[in-house]
Amino acid sequence: MAGNVSKVPASLAALDGLEGTEAICCFLCEDERPLTGAAGFLDWRLCGGLSRVLKAGFFTGAPGEKLLLPSSSQVPAPKIFAVGLGRASSITPLGLEHALSQAGTMLTKAQVASVALTFPTLPRTVLDSREELVGRTFTASFAGRITVFTG
Q1: Which domain holds residue 100?
Q2: What is the rounded distance in angstroms from the CA atom of residue 93 to the CA atom of residue 75?
Q3: Which residue, 4, 58, 66, 135, is most buried by CB atoms nearer than 10 A?
Q4: pLDDT of 134-144, one tens digit each?
């Protein structure tokens, strides 16, 4: 990954340790319920805030869908962005590349200087290319500091 990209394990401790990070950008699927990994830990810290938005249908995780939520000081990052990826089994490297590009542009327009990225459980073919896509595609549209939750 590029020099401005670091990796941390998906854990409550890593989430709580995001001091100085302005935003968390969660890539979410339409059909991954309950939320897992770092998004699940984030939802826990938000007292089910992400789950409530999903359950209400306000945000579903459909491709191209985007949402901004306040963290209400429940995690160190004040802003939570969600980006839809579609159905988990339908995600392709090209689809993830498109979502990463859109997210990077969105975060740049929002003047975010540092972000932590969370990903759902991805198909093996997409998971194998995730690191390369973040390093090539996301960093092409977002120049700030990036933390990627792994696992």
Answers
A1: 5-150
A2: 30
A3: 135
A4: 999 999 999 99
Q: What are the distances in angstroms from CA 9 to CA 5, 62, 76?
A: 14, 26, 17
The predicted-structure confidence for 113-128, as pLDDT tens digits, reads as follows 999 999 999 999 999 9
Q: Where are the beta strands (DSSP E) in the chain?
A: 5-9, 23-29, 66-70, 79-86, 114-118, 145-150
For residue 125, what is the domain's CATH number?
A: 3.40.220.10
The total of structural domains in the chain comes to: 1
Report the C-alpha gap between 19 and 128 in whole angstroms: 29
Q: Supply the Cα-derived Rg of the chain in whole angstroms.
A: 14
Token couple for 85: 């990826």
**Cα(45)–Cα(125) distance, rounded to whole angstroms?**
31
Q: Are 63 and 101 a contacting pair, CB within 8 Å?
A: no
Query: Mind listing the pLDDT tens digit for each residue in 24-76?
Result: 999 999 999 999 999 999 999 999 999 999 999 999 999 999 999 999 999 99
Token pair listed for 68? 């901004």
